[in-house]
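Consortium newsletter contribution from the modelling node. Members have asked for a concrete example of what our holo predictions look like. Here is one, prepared for the pyridoxal-5'-phosphate complex that several groups have been discussing at recent meetings.
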Amino acid sequence: MKKIYLDHNATTPLDPRVLEAMLPYYKDIFGNASSVHEFGRQARKAIDEARVKVARLLGAKDPDEIVFTSSGTESDNFAIKGAAHSLKSKGAHIITSSIEHHAVLNTCKFLEKVGFQVTYAPVDKYGVVDIEAIKKAVTEKTILITIMFANNEVGTIEPISEIAAFARQKGILFHTDAVQALGKVPIDAARLGADLISVSAHKLYGPKGTGALYIRKGVKLTPLLHGGHHEKNRRASTENVAGIVGFGKAAELAVANMKQETRDIEELRRTLEKGITTGIKCAFLNGHSTNRLCNTANISFEYLEGEGIILSLDMEGIAVSTGSACTSGSLEPSHVLTAMGIDPVKTQGSIRFSLGKDNTREDIDYVLKVLPPIIERLRKMSPLYHE
Ligand SMILES: *Cc1c(COP(=O)(O)O)cnc(C)c1O
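And here is the predicted structure:
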């Protein structure tokens, strides 16, 4: 059976060129990057080269502003807890949004339990965060503003430069979770003026288990991990050399191909979106119509359960999801759609299609052929639906 993967916001396949670049570091070049001998020096050199490539993709002025971590989740934890810890004598108030990834939301919830105050700024019906609410929430105790670059469930791109500029003017540290944006939207860390930026390799055709945190020069964070002097004392533990090399290669490929690839993906997404919303009754797009990731279409099919649609599509070889991979299986409504004020009748039946660079027009045509009869069949069985 044909297999069509449309869940790239959960994870992407490893690019074969990335795997190729990584393999030597699982074989002959196995040294510990902290060792002074030839084995170690080769590993160190590979990490340094990867750091330059990731810095280039992020628009960091200095490669030393990149600290490699084990994931996007770790980068978010490092940025938020690290800032909270190092600035707590100044204040204990943090501002975030209500639609962040759980790596940010649950880190903030944890900090609330240990004495910090957190403001969760609301979003509008398109998922755009309310900047005025952020501005109003600031007090002299505010030490950090953390707002995601682009939302993973609906794809809405947030007004990050405006928020970063505001934070800077107020002397408040600014972090953005750019895990979903990296490789899809140009990011220019130096121009943006963000202090901290989280990214992860497996969302852009790199390996799982490798992330990075951009830490603007001069910003001091308390480390999460204590131990050796790795990553200039910012993150202890022996480096995942192969993973870091893979991240570097994925970043290099993104720098070279992002423009063309995102254009092609966007065209496919438009075809899919148009085909669904014109061909199926009571199907509505969630998220911003234009300020959105090129690859993401979150669509609500009224009167249905998302899980039912996913399972039916899975039987036809098509992989999609209800939103975030972390909440699927729980049947809880998406916190993102809920924060956007979407009617529960619609949030229940929402499906996220997230495309990638290897999807083709044939894939989309196949989905557009298979999906309408599935929706029709499920609606006939739905007690909520009446013709
Ligand atoms: C996937 C994702 C994360 C988590 O990254 P991992 O590397 O999987 O831990 C964090 N934030 C956003 C927006 C994501 O999409």
